[in-house]
Structures are given as C-alpha cells and as structure tokens.
Amino acid sequence: MPEVNIRKFLTMIEEIYHEGGKAAQKPLMRGAIVAVIENPFAGSYHEEITGFMKDLEPLGLDMATRLIAALGGDPAAVEGYGKGIIVGQNGELEHGALWHAPGGYAMREVLGGAKAIVPSSKKVGGPGTRLDVPITHINASYVRSHFDSMEVGVPDGPRGNEMAVVLVMTTGARIHNRAGGLRASDIKGEDGLR
Q1: What Pfam families does the entry give (predicted)?
Q2: Which of 18, 24, 74, 155 is deepest in the core (most CB within 10 A)?
Q3: Confidence band (pLDDT; 50, 70, 90) for 194?
C-alpha cells in the first residue's frame, strides 16, 4: 500500500463556560484534529482496500498525541472521545470505514487503554462539508453526561481525491448536564458500557 500523503492538519479547540446557566469554574474543552490526506482509492473501484488501515495507524497515533497536546498535554484530563471521516466525492463511503480501527485504537492507546468503543460518523462530501462527530465517555458508553458531539469541517477539503480524517476529545461532561443516568463516578469499567 502507498504511504499516507498528508496535505494538511487542522486543530480546533473550544472552551465552553456555560450554555445559558451559571458559568463553570473550569470550562469544558472540546478539541478536534483533522488530517486532510490523499485517498489512494479515489476515482475507481478497488476490491482490496483493508491494507490501508495498517498504513493509517501511525497517522492515528500522531493525531491523538497532537490533540492531547492541544488540550493541555495531560491524557488523564480527557474524558470523552469520538472519530469521523469525510470522504471526497471521487471516493466511496467504504473508504471512510478504513479509519475506524486506526483512529479508535490510537486514541485508546494514548489514553492508557480506554475501554469504551469510540463512536464514529462518516460521509461523502466536497470542500467545506461539515460533520457532526459523536462523543461518549472513554471508559463507559452509557455515561449520559458525556453524550455530546462536535461539528468539524475543512474550508478547502476534502477535495475529490482526498479524505479528511478526524479525532475528537473532550475534558468532561456537557456543561450544565442534568439528564440523569449513569454518572462517571459510578463507572465499573468491566465492559466499556457501564
């Protein structure tokens, strides 16, 4: 398989103090990193594509490390995560599925073995396409306070022969969360769900 050809990175950090209620003493931070890369399968159908997942693994680790640094540098501060991909118009949705394992395992590794499955979204679109990336708690998918999403996009990408691969991390629950359910302090950590 060809090496991953990166055109550019884009990193976004949000600091959220309130959603209409009292301002939090410590803001929730939501961060996303996007790598715009060449899609080696764009333009024609390829039966065998799975080898590219292995090629994406170093990129996933690099992106996860960069995102933690942008959020302050402490992996222990990260409580939520998600991933996504926008495939350029000369590609197909299945090319986006190749990001599931490299993106998810990279975050779990740099976060010290997080247990929950990394939620994901993907779509095909052109430059400026926006993607809502779902977020859950890193160790228990049922922690309702951490159900969130972050909208991401690249103004000039992905071009037709590119993909925009995305990782998202947060430092806590939604500001003013009050929808009940399993609390982060009650996680058992046995199965990635509770």
Answers
A1: AA_synth
A2: 24
A3: confident
Average pLDDT for the chain: 96
Q: What is the pLDDT of residues 125-158, one digit of tens each?
A: 999 999 999 999 999 999 999 999 999 999 999 9
Neighbouring residues of 69: CB distance < 8 A, sequence distance ≥ 6: none
Q: Which residues of 18-40 are buried (b: 16+ CB within 10 A; e: fewer)?
A: eeeeeeeeeebbbbbbbbbbbbb
pLDDT for 2: 60
Helix H, strand E, coil C: the string for 120-159 is EEEEECCCCCEEEEEEEECCCCCCHHHCEEEEEEECCECC
Calculate the CA 172 to chain-centre distance: 15
Mean pLDDT calculated for residue range 55-65: 98
Which residue type occupies 37?
I
Contacts (Cβ under 8 Å, ≥6 apart) of 129: 86, 123, 153, 158
Cα 1 from chain centre: 24
